[in-house]
Amino acid sequence: MGKAALDRVVELEGLEGLTEEQEVELAELQPKAQQWRQRRIGTGWERLLPIVLWSWRVWRG
Description:
This protein is mainly α.
């Protein structure tokens, strides 16, 4: 649901003159989209850090 929520939030934010139903949908989806963004950022960094450290150690020799 996270990626779909993020995509829908981006779509709704790009529209002008939202209906009341769209505003409610946007308000409900924004927290889910934000959680997905934070989880993806954390996951990416946690997966990348060991590789970067290993590469740096190899480079330093």
